[in-house]
TrEMBL record:
One of its GO terms (cellular component) is plasma membrane. Keywords: Membrane, Transmembrane, Transmembrane helix. It comes from Streptomyces bauhiniae. Residues 14-66 form the YiaAB two helix domain. It holds the Pfam family YiaAB. This is YiaAB two helix domain-containing protein. It comes from the Bacteria. The chain crosses the membrane at residues 12-34, 40-61. GO terms for biological process: DNA damage response.
Length: 103
C-alpha cells in the first residue's frame, strides 16, 4: 500500500494575503524612500537596494522550493523501489544451499 503524501496547495485566502502583504510593504517602502529628507542619489540608491533585496528573496525562495521538490522526487523513487522489492519478495521460496553448489 502506498502512503504517498498529498501535495499541499495553499488556499486562495493565503495567496491573497501574501500578495496584499507584499504590495503594502513595497508601497510603504517606496513612499518612505520618496519622502526621505535626502538628495536624489541617496533615494535612488535605497530604491535600487530594495529592488535588489526583493529579487534576491524571490530567487532564494525559488531555490529552496526547487531543492525541496527534488528531495521529494528522490524520496518517491526510493519508496517505489522499496515497494517493488517488498512485493517481489517471496519469504516461502527456497533458496539454493551454497554448500551444495560448490560440489
Amino acid at each position: 500500500m502506498s502512503d504517498t503524501p498529498v501535495k499541499q496547495q495553499s488556499t486562495a485566502a493565503f495567496y491573497g494575503q501574501a500578495v496584499a502583504s507584499f504590495a503594502v510593504a513595497m508601497t510603504a517602502t517606496a513612499i518612505g524612500i520618496y519622502r526621505l529628507d535626502a538628495n536624489a542619489w541617496v533615494r535612488g540608491f535605497l530604491a535600487i537596494a530594495v529592488l535588489y533585496l526583493v529579487t534576491s528573496a524571490f530567487t532564494l525562495a525559488k531555490v529552496i522550493r526547487d531543492r525541496q521538490e527534488a528531495g521529494e522526487i528522490v524520496s518517491r523513487v526510493d519508496q517505489a523501489r522499496m515497494e517493488e522489492l517488498l512485493t517481489s519478495h517471496d519469504p516461502y521460496r527456497k533458496t539454493p544451499d551454497p554448500r551444495q553448489q560448490s560440489r
